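[job 4471] stage=fold_predict status=RUNNING
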Amino acid sequence: GNAVGSGLRQLGGAIGADNAHRQLNQQLHNLKYHLGVKVEKRGDVAPVDPKFRGGVPRDREGQPVPAYVSYSPDLEEYLSEFRHIDVLRLLRIHLDELFNIEELRAQQIIVNHFCA
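[job 4471] inference complete, writing structure tokens
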């Protein structure tokens, strides 16, 4: 699956039913939300520094260094699956659009809240 489809499943339909995929695409695009790039889709990076020999940049342990890009629908095939933190952030953004949390607190309708 692609990153958006995965994210939508993880959100559990929290942002709507029929047009949830479109809404999530639009929200990610508007936020310029950063998602990881799949290592296998990164390809070789040309050397720009004499200390770097090209290829996929790696840390001291030899693990690929994460790369992130702003979401764009045409990049979906390159994007990593949503992480749990991505789902929580997007859910929080969506809840903030639906509810004025500070006003709910001020009126003591809620005492505290968190996304988990």
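[job 4471] summary: The two ends are 24 Å apart (CA to CA).
[job 4471] exit 0
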